[in-house]
Automatic annotation (TrEMBL):
Keywords: Coiled coil. Residues 21-48 form a coiled coil. It comes from the Bacteria. This is Aspartyl-phosphate phosphatase Spo0E family protein. GO terms for molecular function: protein dimerization activity. InterPro entries: HLH_DNA-bd_sf, Spo0E-like, Spo0E-like_sf. Pfam families: SpoOE-like. GO terms for biological process: regulation of sporulation. The keyword Coiled coil applies. The keyword Coiled coil applies.
Amino acid sequence: MELIRKIEELRLELNKLAMYKRLADREMLILSQKLDQLLNEYQDFKQVK
C-alpha cells in the first residue's frame, strides 16, 4: 500500500534527521507534522474498512 510506504519512508527520514538536529528544529517539526498527517489518513482509512 502506497500510504504505508510513505509513512515508513518519512519515519526513517525523521529518525536520521534526529541524529543531528534538535527536536525543536524547524525541519524536524515540518516532517513530524507531515508524518502526523499521513498517520491520520491511515487511521481514517482503517476506520472506513
